[in-house]
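Structure first, sequence second, as always.
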């Protein structure tokens, strides 16, 4: 019986050691995977409106103040930008009087494109164009993979009519630029 008791104690010790080793051993890793997919749609959107363009005062017959405002266009494709030239909203006018206007011209540039050899953008305009001919033809933005934003700068210039001086007062205009999917 003494031998049996020793065997039982020895057997219990072995079982406890085995259980302790099993509990202390690191369990094996077990991985699970997930397949994730998403489609990026065609995106073309302005980040908001252009910052306000506040020109200096016209103080002489030959004054021609200029100013600029910027807006960001997000796009993952080619875009054509046109100006609303149907109405006269883009021409600087004194209040609502259509007869009291200034010669109003615009120019467009961007921070990428063919001007600097890379990035989404177009070819900057080199000169001002009178409001009713502005962006006709369209300003073409070419998208470059990996560059989905382009900062557009709109320049404005005001002048007295040739050989005249406009009536005193505060003149204002609203220039609307429209981005559409490019045809190039």
């Amino acid at each position: 019986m003494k031998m049996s008791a020793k065997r039982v104690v020895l057997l219990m010790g072995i079982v406890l050691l085995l259980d302790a080793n099993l509990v202390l051993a690191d369990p094996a890793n077990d991985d699970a995977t997930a397949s994730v997919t998403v489609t990026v749609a065609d995106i073309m959107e302005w980040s908001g409106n252009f910052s306000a363009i506040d020109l200096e005062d016209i103080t002489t017959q030959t004054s021609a103040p200029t100013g600029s405002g910027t807006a960001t266009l997000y796009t993952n494709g080619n875009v054509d930008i046109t100006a609303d030239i149907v109405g006269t909203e883009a021409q600087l006018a004194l209040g609502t009087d259509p007869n009291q206007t200034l010669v109003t011209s615009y120019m467009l540039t961007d921070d990428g494109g063919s001007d600097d050899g890379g990035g989404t953008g177009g070819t900057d305009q080199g000169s001002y164009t009178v409001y009713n001919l502005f962006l006709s033809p369209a300003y073409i933005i070419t998208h470059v993979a990996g560059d989905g934003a382009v900062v557009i700068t709109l320049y404005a210039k005001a002048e007295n009519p040739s050989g005249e001086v406009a009536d005193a007062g505060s003149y204002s205009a609203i220039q609307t630029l429209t981005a559409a999917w490019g045809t190039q």
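Margin note: The chain has a mean pLDDT of 88.
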